[in-house]
Every structure is written in structure tokens, then in C-alpha cells.
Design brief:
Layout: H1 10-20, E1 22-25, H2 31-38, E2 47-52, E3 59-60, E4 62-66, H3 74-95, H4 105-114, E5 123-127, E6 132-136, E7 147-152, E8 159-161, E9 164-169, E10 176-180, E11 187-191, E12 194-199, E13 202-212, E14 215-218, E15 220-226
Antiparallel strand pairs: 1-11, 2-4, 3-6, 4-5, 5-15, 6-13, 7-11, 7-15, 8-14, 9-10, 9-13, 12-13
Length: 231
């Protein structure tokens, strides 16, 4: 299996991320590849752990973290996305007075290992009727790459509800909600924890959280690509 495209409009993606904290990209995966990946969900040996969300107060539904090695085409896709996102992440880090990031995903993984973050964080989520995901941030340790991706594996005709939701909280302002519709195989890139916003006195931090609204009918499956590993 190969990604549907390796050519991305990085200037447009960077502009969207800087303007609103998220950007759509894709389609990254063909419908056939989406279906092949979805079929892996019941192959338990492919995953290192399974989380039932209601047991932890995360929402309702479940997800599983992939074990290494990740299935094709995820290693190449993660590396290619990271290569384009690293300069954007570096720009954010400089604006927020934080350390920068290496150019390659292999080097970031090495930094994670040195920090005691050794568990893979790519995951697949499955939602049925009534399932949802509360607003959260995917941090997993002290070393956090500030951008991540979610790819819709299901055809939107297969489910109702289940909207991908982003909420940003600017200081001294009410929360702003973004609802991002996706096609099968399309991705949204978004801020993991915070993003810089230019203000009258320089840049300031805007907190962001993401989640999924309740699925009313059908089944929704998503692939999450997080670039830092977990402790």
C-alpha cells in the first residue's frame, strides 16, 4: 500500500495552521487502503493496547495503539508528513520560546527514547452509535511535537454525527469551536496542545483541545498519527 499522494501544498497548510490551528490535507489514502487498514482493527497482535473510553472517563467507544512495526503505509506517511511539519513546528517553538525540533522523524524518535518515551502512539479509533470522544490533548510525556494528524478511514456515508471538533481558548475570551468535515482518506492536521497567536504585545499561547461528537448511526473509524512517542 502507498499513500495516495506525496505532494502537499505546504505553504497553504502553514498559512492555515498559523491562522486557525488546523488545516485539511489530502486525500492521503485511497478508499481501498482505508478499507485494508480498517480490517486490521480486529487483529489484536497488531496493537500494543486497547482503551475502552468509558472506563477512563474519556467518552464512549474504544481505540487501540499500534504496536511496532506499524503497518504499511504508515511509516512512510508519518515520515513524509513530519518532514513538512517540522519547519512549521520550529517556527511555533521559536515564537513560544521553546526548544526546536529535528528535521527527521527518526531523530525525533531518538530524542523520545532518550527522554524515556518509547511506546508508539499511532492509533485507530472505532465509534458506533452513541460513541463520542471528550475534548482532550494527546501529550504522552514531556517531549511533545506540537502537531498531529487524524485521517478519516470511513466513508462519511457510513455514519451520521461523529464530527471532528476543535476548541480553542484564547486568554480572556470565550471558547471558539471549529467543526472539520472530512472525506474518506482525508486528514486534518492540528495543534496538539497550543499554538502561537500574534497580539498587541507579541505572541501569546492559545490552548487547543480536540474531540469527536456523538455518532448517531453507523460506524466511524479514524487513524491518528502522533509524532512523539509515549512514556
Amino acid at each position: 500500500m502507498t499513500p495516495m499522494t506525496d505532494t502537499f501544498d505546504w505553504p497553504r497548510i502553514a498559512d492555515d495552521l498559523n491562522a486557525q490551528g488546523w488545516a485539511t490535507i489530502g486525500p492521503l489514502l485511497t478508499p481501498a487502503t482505508c478499507e485494508t487498514l480498517k480490517a486490521l482493527y480486529d487483529q489484536r497482535e497488531r496493537f500494543r493496547s486497547r482503551i475502552v473510553m468509558q472506563r477512563h472517563g474519556f467518552g464512549q467507544g474504544e481505540y487501540q495503539y499500534f504496536a511496532n512495526p506499524l503497518p504499511d503505509p504508515l511509516p512512510r506517511l508519518r515520515a513524509r508528513l513530519y518532514e513538512g511539519l517540522a519547519p512549521i513546528a520550529d517556527g511555533w517553538a521559536a515564537r513560544l520560546d521553546r526548544p526546536g525540533f529535528p528535521d527527521s522523524l527518526d531523530d525525533l524518535t531518538a530524542q523520545c527514547r532518550a527522554a524515556g518515551q518509547t511506546r508508539p502512539t499511532s492509533l485507530m479509533l472505532r465509534y458506533g452509535p452513541g460513541d463520542y470522544n471528550r475534548l482532550h490533548q494527546d501529550l504522552y510525556g514531556d517531549l511533545v511535537f506540537p502537531l498531529q494528524a487524524a485521517i478519516l478511514l470511513s466513508d462519511p456515508a457510513e455514519f451520521e454525527g461523529g464530527e471532528f471538533v476543535l476548541v480553542e481558548q484564547k486568554p480572556r475570551s470565550q471558547s471558539q469551536v471549529h467543526v472539520v468535515p472530512l472525506k474518506q482518506g482525508e486528514a486534518v492536521i492540528f495543534a496538539v496542545r497550543e499554538r502561537p497567536v500574534a497580539g498587541m504585545r507579541g505572541d501569546y499561547r492559545v490552548q487547543m483541545r480536540h474531540g469527536v461528537s456523538a455518532v448517531r448511526a453507523g460506524q466511524r473509524m479514524t487513524l491518528g498519527l502522533i509524532f512523539h512517542d509515549a512514556s
